[in-house]
Amino acid sequence: MTHRVLVPIDGSEMAEHALEYALETHPEAEITVLHIAGAPSAMMGASVGLALESDIEEAAEERAAEIFDGAREIADSHGVEIETDVSWGSPAKAIVNHADGFDVVVIGSHSGTLADRLIVGNVAQKVVQHSPVPVTVVR
């Protein structure tokens, strides 16, 4: 039985599908939604924006709060409470580093624009290759 599920989320439609899948497939599990702050983008906008803040941690938490609010709405529709966590740096590395304490990672197949995926790389693919626990990729 699956007890702990990690769902990386970035506010994209695919990440929301992954959360829905995790909630439906693992209704008794503890679900933790992970947002990676300062994730690279095609123009490094998110990372640079955070770097210019006087309190980087607080700014990252504020940016993640909106994404977590959306995730909580999805979880509420299933009658489930979720845990939230914020991490830093490369999305794939952060997810893999967090995965060790979970039974499974449920991740969206892709997010962002085509340009983001080409420059940043396919996070889901990297997580599948390096995760210490099973990974479910949701389309």
Automatic annotation (TrEMBL):
Domain UspA, chain residue ranges per copy: 1-139
Pfam families in the cross-refs: Usp
InterPro entries (alphabetical): Rossmann-like_a/b/a_fold, Universal_stress_UspA, UspA
Family designation: Belongs to the universal stress protein A family.
The protein, known as: Nucleotide-binding universal stress protein, UspA family
